[in-house]
Amino acid sequence: MKLIVKPIEFETGGKPILIMNKQDAEFLGLHSSDRVLIKSKKKKIISIIDISDKLVSPGEAGANIDLCTRLNIALGHSIDVVAAGTPESVRFIKEKIQGRRLNYKKIKAIIEDVVERHLTDVELSAFITSLSIYGMSMDETESLSKAMIQTGKKIKLPGKKLVDKHGIGGCSGDTTSMVLVPTVAAAGLTIAKTSSRAITSPAGTADKMEILAPVEFKIDEIKKIIKKANACLVWGGTLDLAPADDTFVKIEYPLSIDPLMLPSIMSKKKAMGSKYLVIDMPTGRGAKIKTVGAATSLAYDFIELGKRLGIHTACGITYGEQPIGYRIGPALEAQEALLTLKGNGPKDLLEKVASLAGILFEMVAKNHIDGKKHALYLIKSGKAYKKMKQIIEAQGGDPNIKPSDIEVGKKHVYVRSNKSGFVLWTKNAEIAAIAREAGAPKDKGAGLIINKKNGDKVKKGDILLIIYSNNSAKLDSALKLVKEYEPIVVGKSYEERLLLSKVPAKIPHKRIFLLER
Amino acid sequence: MKLIVKPIEFETGGKPILIMNKQDAEFLGLHSSDRVLIKSKKKKIISIIDISDKLVSPGEAGANIDLCTRLNIALGHSIDVVAAGTPESVRFIKEKIQGRRLNYKKIKAIIEDVVERHLTDVELSAFITSLSIYGMSMDETESLSKAMIQTGKKIKLPGKKLVDKHGIGGCSGDTTSMVLVPTVAAAGLTIAKTSSRAITSPAGTADKMEILAPVEFKIDEIKKIIKKANACLVWGGTLDLAPADDTFVKIEYPLSIDPLMLPSIMSKKKAMGSKYLVIDMPTGRGAKIKTVGAATSLAYDFIELGKRLGIHTACGITYGEQPIGYRIGPALEAQEALLTLKGNGPKDLLEKVASLAGILFEMVAKNHIDGKKHALYLIKSGKAYKKMKQIIEAQGGDPNIKPSDIEVGKKHVYVRSNKSGFVLWTKNAEIAAIAREAGAPKDKGAGLIINKKNGDKVKKGDILLIIYSNNSAKLDSALKLVKEYEPIVVGKSYEERLLLSKVPAKIPHKRIFLLER
């Protein structure tokens, strides 16, 4: 059926959509969400349709910007539309619903159709849900990783011994990457760290680094930065390393499931050309992974997948029972990273960075070395800080920025303890929720400083938290959450707090902890 | 946020959609597919949003017809929009993904949000997929049925001893309902049969009955028809008996899964006030249920669920290895129903109707009777035909319509056997696909007549099928399918055809058999 293009502006998250008039759709026997094959002069693609009575007249084809771009069409152009069958990959998704294992060919067909946007939300959600319920074999995990690499961009970076670090998240205030990257680079290794922005946390590494320097670059620009500083700290969002993953995250996020964590992380590392990789796994009751046993199992999977993809992988299972460092929020954490590099940082952050960097050093070294000791030397000697200044400069920031130059929220409020004792435990996810309520990560100055950490002595009236925001309404609402959540639990003894949590008859709907890659 | 209504015509299958400008959405921190609470002067509802740059300007609220109707708003009205949290039912869907059993309260929350259209396709698909993978306990099945009844309309029909019949489908050309309903009513029982139109079959009962009389009625009109004829054969599509099911079907259909079959069928029967129910389960290699064993398990579930809902339920497991009768397609099957009622129908259809009606008679009777014999008497004596004329008249059709008055496709083509022997087997689903290719159910005259059935002797050159259509291109394309599918397999002996099917290295994507309620 020939139709005349009428561009219609519609946000679909990159999905090409064709809007057909009801009459035309009926003539072709099409319903909403059916697929059609659309041919323009030179290109053809499969698209999902929507049906409208009035947005387009019979004979017109409403095309959103994604469709116009991909078909290279504009107002008044003519396109040819025919009904398209169900893609073969849908049959493979049905096999997965039935619990069958999928081979590489079938997984690749699914991933290709995900990238080409041929699948509907119903089909994608059925796939992700099935993966989450059945789990994946290592063969499937490998196939998914390889298919995601094959459908994405690969980057050939300058420099030898490309190393990388990834944190699976779940620990608020964790500024490890911003200290580890310059430390590793100061040792002469090349580390091209791509990070995400916050989805559900108060600050992603990209959000924090942006306080010190720009983080959005094209691939060629990243190569230039690496040439200058043999390191970078950039946003990975537009590099298109594993475009299938962007689509999967949109399905996983509302369902709070994350069956694709391994292939999603490892495919991006492979696409960046990483040869040595350390994975940070914060483990603890309030973190994403609850026990060392669970973390160990997952670590073996990472290491095995790394082998299959040609990445030397090691894992560090780290203490995740409370936030790392004291500061939470983009600006506050950027401050803490700089303080640490200048030798004035919190002990736990320093310890964590040195341990993880040490693992990398020991992997790369030909002879036996004490990696952690070397890492501590690089930080304490100022070499890591010097490297950070190079990175900031290479990314276009001011290398002489001082922690005190960084603006935090104009308004702040103290949260004081109403009893004496010591900090029994700290609630990670609740701390993150409070920082977000205060405005982070959008309000870069928003967040909080934790004044007392697990085991610290507390007197009645002592400051537990300082919450920052640029908006007083948000500050109030964060303070309300503090009262509701009791994020830092103070008591005289553990015996006094045997009741860990109350579950009332009517469970309130708390939505505080979600996946973050 | 106050917005001014701008109606936008968009087909969303009954789902209210609000389109917001990107700026406004960002201000409220909303993404595509997020939920908002919308308040008009007197009403408020939760709606899912879409985001557009140009369809609506900042300050405008694009509202589709469903949203306008439900909020009673029009162009220029002012509405108030705030971000709405994730509904509680999403938490219960997540519990189902984790394999937990859901109680009535949780299931009801989900069903209510389904009916109110508060859930996204991603959430709905995750729910349906999880149900399909884990299966449901009988308690969950009961809860789902009751929640679906509670969120739908209930009908109080005149007449005592309300009986009903349901076929779970999968057998082409099955015209049982159109003969059974007048037979049962001729015995003095009341039977208000609601049927569906075809979704994936060549003809639903509603499509066939529409050849003889109108089938779309409001509840009050159905009551009048029942008063006149103590029976009806109407379309159930607009009665809103279990509105949640309409939404579920849209998810299940593309995934070819049907986890809600029991609650979906039984909730509608309960809503119609049925007291006695017989379920027809066509069983055979080409049908939906493959073995008598599987059918028996399912039958016990139907009977147990019937008990819990207060419906006396019995099941008939019927021969489903080939189509019932000879004619397939709306007009052709209407002919066959009339022929059978007039004493000239195919033996298998007569046998099937009498057996199933007999089960109902024996359930309802206080003393021992031979139900099947009674049913055969009612048909052979012409009493059932007389009742059918009453039903046709009560629904506004011409009671004197003759089979020969019914127009079938103007064009037809013979399919002849290229060898001698006998019919070894017949492919149900493939027969349905061919009839649909010929144009059924949209082209009411399209379809086919089967000339030879399982076990019949065939000489080379004998007619196996006659295909009808009003469109020669469709006739050609149906003929092509015949060649590809070999729907009627002729041979000298079973030994000759030990190879049942070839599975080539590259599997062609056949999409011929799908759920139909």
Structure in words:
The structure is a homodimer of 517-residue chains. Chain A is α/β, with parallel strands linked by helices and 517 residues long. Chain A has 4 domains: 2-83, Barwin-like endoglucanases (Beta Barrel); 88-135, Transferase, Pyrimidine Nucleoside Phosphorylase, Chain C (Transferase, Pyrimidine Nucleoside Phosphorylase, Chain A, domain 3, Up-down Bundle), CATH 1.20.970.10; 162-240 and 260-403, Nucleoside phosphorylase/phosphoribosyltransferase catalytic domain (Pyrimidine Nucleoside Phosphorylase, Chain A, domain 2); 411-497, Pyrimidine nucleoside phosphorylase-like, C-terminal domain (Aldehyde Oxidoreductase, domain 3, Alpha-Beta Complex), CATH 3.90.1170.30. Chain A contains 18 helices and 18 strands. Chain A has a 6-stranded mixed beta barrel with strand order 1-5-2-4-3-6. In chain A, strands 9-8-7-10-11 form a 5-stranded parallel β-sheet, with helices on both faces. In chain A, α3 packs across α4 (104-115), α3 (88-97) packs parallel to α5 (121-134) and α6 packs across α12. The two termini of chain A are 44 Å apart. The model of chain A has no long low-confidence stretch (mean pLDDT 91). Chains A and B meet through β4, α3, α5 and α10 of A and β4, α3, α5 and α10 of B.
